[in-house]
C-alpha cells in the first residue's frame, strides 16, 4: 500500500523537511543578495513626440548594460534594466517613476530627454527618495529648480552648450542673430542663455521667434525674420523637425539668405541628405557627439559605435535609413557608467544605501575619456549635480556633417547657481 | 517684409490648409450625413493614407512622380477597403447606434495608431514630392507642390460633387441619407450603401493624407490635429452638409493662415474653437445644416 507522504507525512519526513527549511532560512542572507541583480529603472520615450529618441536610448542603454555585465556587473552583482514608457508626457512620467520604484523595486531610476517630463517627474523622485539620473540636457538641474535626488552625470546642460557656441558664432558668422526655438522650457533655455551669451560677445539677438511644440506647419512664422538678420539660429524638436527645415529652405528658395546655425536637435534622426535639404549645404550645427565619425575621432569611438550598432555615418548598421539620435544618446551610456562608478564608490548594497550613493556621486569630479565616456572627458560638479564636457560645431559638406570646431570646457563655464549638497535628503 | 507680400504668403498658406481640410472634412461630413456615425477614427484613416504613401514610395522604383502616382491610387483604395471591413465587422453589428459607434471608433483609432507604431515605427518619415518646383517670388520662395495640392483638392471635390449629384449611386446615397427606412422599402441595399459611404469617407481622408505627406512627414500621431480641425469645420458647416463643409473649410483655413501670421497661431485656434462654441449655442444645426 502506498501512502501519499504529502498528506500523511511520517515523523521522519516531517523532521527532514523542517530541518531543511530551517537551514535555508538560517543561511546567511548576503549569499542570496549578492546574486540578486541591481535593478535600474529607465523612464523611456517609447511613444509620443520623443519616440525617435526613445528607440535609440533603449538600444544604447541595452548596449551599455551588456558591456557592464560582461565586465562583471556593478560591485560583482549583475545589472538588470527595466524600461517603462512615459509617452513623452510629464504626468505619465511621474507615474512611471512611482511604478519603477514602488512596484518594480528598482534601485535607481534613469530619466529621459524631454525637459517637461523630467521637470514633472523629479518632485516624485524626491518624495520617494530615489536617485533620479536624468539625460535631459536642460538647465533645470543646475539651476537649482529640482532636488538633491536628481543628478545629470551624462550630458552637458543646454546653458553650457549654448554659452560655448556664442564666441564662435559671433566671430565667424555674424553679430545680429534671429532665433527660432520651441516654446517650452528647453527652448526658453536657448532663448535666455544664447541672448545673454551673444550680448557678452558684443553681438545682439534682434528677434526671438517662439514656436508651439506641437506645431506642424512653419512657413507662417518665417516672415517674422527681420531682413537685417546676419545669422539665423534655429533649434526645433519633435516629429515635425524635417518639415521645419524643409519649409525654411522653401521660404528662402534661391534668394539671398543669412548663414544658418542650428542645434542638431532640428535634424536628429533625420538624414542630412534627404531631398529638399540641399539648401543646408554649408550651414552649421551644434553636435554633442559627432554623427559622422570624425577623421581624428578618439580611440574608443569605433568600439562604442559597434556596441550600439551605428555605422560611421551615424545610421543603424542594419538599416542605413534609420538615422540615430547620435548627438544625445551617448548620455544614457555615460549615465549608466556613472551609476556603476557611484554604486561601487559608495559600497551600495540595496535601497537603504540610496543616500550614500547620491553622496558618492556628489564627490565625483574628473571623469576622463574612455569607453565609459565615448563623447569625451567630463567634469562633474557635485554642487550643481551637473556634468560638463566639450561641444562640437559641424558644417554640412556634401550632405554630411563634418566637424569644424571643438569647444573647450572653459567656453561653456558659468557660475554655480545652487549647492545641492547643503540641502537635506 | 511689407504688408502686401506678407498677406499673399498668409493667403497661400491658408489655401493649402483649407484644401487639405476640405478633403478630410468632406469625408467626415459624408459619413455623418448618410450614416449618422461620428467617426472618431477619421484622423487615423488620414494618417494611414500618409503612412501607406510612404510604404508605396519605398517599393516603387523609378522617379518620385511615379511612386507618388501609385500612392495616390493605392493608399485610398487600401484604406477604403479597411474601412469597408470595419463597417461590416463592427459598425453594422452595433446597428449604427450613435453612442456605440463613437466608442467603437475611438477604439479603432487607438488600434490603428498603435498598430502603426508597432509596424511603422515612431519616426516621421518623408515622402518625396512628385516634382521639386519652387516658385521664387521677389519677396520669398514658395513650394510649387503646395499649389498643386490646392489644385488637386479642387479636382477631387468637384468629382465628389458630380458623383453625388449626377450619378445613380449618388442619388441612392442621398435617398438613404433622407430616409433609411423608405430607401430600404424601395429596394435599396442600405447595408451596401453604408459600407460604400464609410469606405468613401475613409478614402477621402487617406487621399488628403497622401497629398499632405510630401509637405509634412508621415507620423503615427499626425491624425490628431486633422481630426480636431475636421470636426470644427463640420460643426460650423453643418453636419452632413457638403456645401457647408467646403465653405467652412475655406473660412477656417484662410482665417488660420491670416490670423496665425499676423497675430499668433494659438489665437487662430482659440478663435476657431470659439466659433464652434458660438455655432453650437446659436445655430446647433450648423451654418448650412438642415434643421432636423
Tell me briefly what this model is:
By secondary structure, chain A is of the alpha/beta class.
Write the layout of secondary structure elements.
The complex is a heterodimer of chains A (425) and B (292).
Chain A: H1 11-26, H2 29-35, E1 38-44, H3 51-70, E2 79-85, H4 90-103, E3 108-110, H5 115-128, E4 132-133, E5 150-151, H6 158-172, E6 176-182, H7 185-200, E7 204-211, E8 231-234, H8 241-252, E9 260-263, E10 284-287, H9 301-308, H10 326-346, H11 354-362, E11 366-367, E12 378-381, E13 386-389, E14 392-397, E15 400-406
Parallel strand pairs in A: 1-2, 1-3, 3-4, 4-5, 6-7, 6-8, 8-9, 9-10
Antiparallel strand pairs in A: 10-14, 11-12, 12-13, 14-15
Helix pairs in contact in A: 3-10, 4-5, 6-7, 10-11
Chain B: H1 3-35, H2 42-59, H3 64-91, H4 98-120, E1 134-136, E2 141-143, H5 144-166, H6 168-178, H7 180-185, H8 190-212, H9 223-237, H10 242-262, H11 265-282
Antiparallel strand pairs in B: 1-2
Helix pairs in contact in B: 1-5, 1-8, 1-9, 1-10, 2-3, 2-4, 2-8, 2-9, 3-8, 5-6, 9-10, 9-11, 10-11
Amino acid at each position: 500500500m502506498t501512502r501519499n507522504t504529502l498528506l500523511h507525512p511520517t515523523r521522519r519526513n516531517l523532521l527532514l523537511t523542517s530541518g531543511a527549511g530551517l537551514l535555508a532560512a538560517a543561511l546567511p542572507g548576503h549569499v542570496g543578495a549578492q546574486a540578486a541583480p541591481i535593478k535600474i529603472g529607465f523612464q523611456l520615450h517609447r511613444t509620443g513626440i520623443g519616440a525617435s529618441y526613445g528607440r535609440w536610448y533603449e538600444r544604447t542603454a541595452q548596449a551599455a548594460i551588456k558591456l557592464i555585465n560582461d565586465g562583471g556587473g556593478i560591485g560583482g552583482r549583475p545589472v538588470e534594466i527595466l524600461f517603462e514608457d512615459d509617452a513623452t508626457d510629464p504626468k505619465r512620467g511621474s507615474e512611471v517613476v512611482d511604478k519603477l520604484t514602488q512596484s518594480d523595486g528598482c534601485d535607481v531610476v534613469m530619466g529621459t530627454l524631454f525637459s517637461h517630463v523630467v521637470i514633472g517627474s523629479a518632485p516624485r523622485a524626491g518624495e520617494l527618495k530615489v536617485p533620479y539620473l536624468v539625460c535631459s540636457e536642460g538647465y533645470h538641474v543646475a539651476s537649482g529648480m529640482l532636488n538633491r535626488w536628481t543628478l545629470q552625470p551624462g550630458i552637458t546642460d543646454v546653458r553650457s552648450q549654448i554659452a560655448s557656441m556664442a564666441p564662435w558664432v559671433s566671430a565667424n558668422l555674424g553679430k545680429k542673430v534671429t532665433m527660432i526655438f520651441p516654446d517650452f522650457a528647453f527652448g526658453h533655455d536657448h532663448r535666455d542663455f544664447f541672448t545673454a551669451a551673444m550680448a557678452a560677445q558684443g553681438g545682439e539677438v534682434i528677434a526671438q521667434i517662439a514656436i508651439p511644440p506641437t506645431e506642424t506647419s512653419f512657413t507662417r512664422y518665417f516672415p517674422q525674420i527681420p531682413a537685417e538678420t546676419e545669422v539665423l539660429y534655429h533649434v526645433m524638436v519633435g516629429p515635425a523637425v524635417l518639415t521645419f527645415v524643409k519649409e525654411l529652405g522653401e521660404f528662402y528658395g534661391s534668394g539671398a539668405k543669412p548663414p544658418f546655425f542650428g542645434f542638431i536637435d532640428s535634424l536628429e534622426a533625420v538624414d542630412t541628405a534627404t531631398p529638399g535639404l540641399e539648401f543646408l549645404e554649408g550651414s552649421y550645427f551644434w553636435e554633442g557627439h559627432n554623427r559622422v565619425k570624425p577623421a581624428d575621432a578618439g580611440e574608443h569611438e569605433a568600439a562604442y559605435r559597434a556596441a550600439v550598432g551605428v555605422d560611421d555615418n551615424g545610421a543603424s548598421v542594419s538599416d542605413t535609413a534609420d538615422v540615430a539620435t547620435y548627438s544625445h544618446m551617448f548620455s544614457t551610456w555615460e549615465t549608466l557608467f556613472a551609476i556603476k562608478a557611484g554604486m561601487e564608490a559608495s559600497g551600495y548594497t540595496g535601497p537603504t544605501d540610496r543616500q550614500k550613493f547620491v553622496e558618492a556621486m556628489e564627490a565625483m569630479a574628473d571623469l576622463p575619456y574612455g569607453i565609459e565616456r565615448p563623447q569625451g572627458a567630463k567634469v562633474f560638479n557635485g554642487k550643481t549635480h551637473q556634468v560638463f564636457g566639450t561641444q562640437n560645431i559641424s558644417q554640412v559638406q556634401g550632405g554630411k556633417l563634418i566637424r569644424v570646431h571643438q569647444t573647450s570646457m572653459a567656453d561653456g563655464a558659468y557660475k554655480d547657481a545652487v549647492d545641492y549638497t547643503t540641502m537635506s535628503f | 517684409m511689407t504688408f502686401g507680400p506678407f498677406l499673399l504668403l498668409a493667403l497661400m498658406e491658408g489655401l493649402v490648409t483649407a484644401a487639405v481640410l476640405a478633403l478630410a472634412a468632406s469625408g467626415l461630413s459624408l459619413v455623418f450625413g448618410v450614416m449618422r456615425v461620428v467617426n472618431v477614427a477619421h484622423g487615423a484613416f488620414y494618417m494611414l493614407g500618409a503612412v501607406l504613401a510612404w510604404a508605396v514610395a519605398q517599393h516603387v522604383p523609378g522617379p518620385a512622380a511615379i511612386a507618388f502616382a501609385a500612392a495616390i491610387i493605392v493608399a485610398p483604395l487600401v484604406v477604403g477597403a479597411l474601412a469597408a471591413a470595419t463597417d461590416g465587422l463592427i459598425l453594422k453589428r452595433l446597428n449604427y447606434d450613435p453612442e456605440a459607434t463613437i466608442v467603437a471608433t475611438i477604439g479603432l483609432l487607438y488600434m490603428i495608431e498603435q498598430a502603426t507604431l508597432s509596424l511603422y515605427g515612431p519616426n516621421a518619415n518623408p515622402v518625396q514630392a512628385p516634382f521639386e518646383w519652387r516658385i521664387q517670388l521677389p519677396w520669398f520662395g514658395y513650394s510649387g507642390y503646395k499649389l498643386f495640392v490646392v489644385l488637386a483638392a479642387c479636382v477631387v471635390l468637384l468629382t465628389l460633387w458630380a458623383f453625388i449629384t449626377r450619378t445613380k449611386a449618388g442619388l441612392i446615397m442621398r435617398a438613404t441619407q433622407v430616409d433609411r427606412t423608405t430607401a430600404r422599402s424601395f429596394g435599396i441595399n442600405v447595408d451596401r450603401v453604408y459600407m460604400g459611404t464609410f469606405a468613401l469617407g475613409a478614402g477621402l481622408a487617406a487621399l488628403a493624407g497622401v497629398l499632405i505627406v510630401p509637405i509634412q512627414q508621415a507620423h503615427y500621431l499626425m491624425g490628431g490635429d486633422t481630426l480636431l480641425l475636421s470636426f470644427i469645420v463640420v460643426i460650423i458647416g453643418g453636419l452632413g452638409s457638403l456645401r457647408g463643409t467646403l465653405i467652412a473649410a475655406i473660412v477656417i483655413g484662410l482665417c488660420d493662415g491670416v490670423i496665425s501670421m499676423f497675430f499668433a497661431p494659438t489665437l487662430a485656434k482659440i478663435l476657431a474653437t470659439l466659433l464652434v462654441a458660438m455655432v453650437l449655442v446659436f445655430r446647433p444645426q450648423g451654418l448650412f445644416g438642415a434643421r432636423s
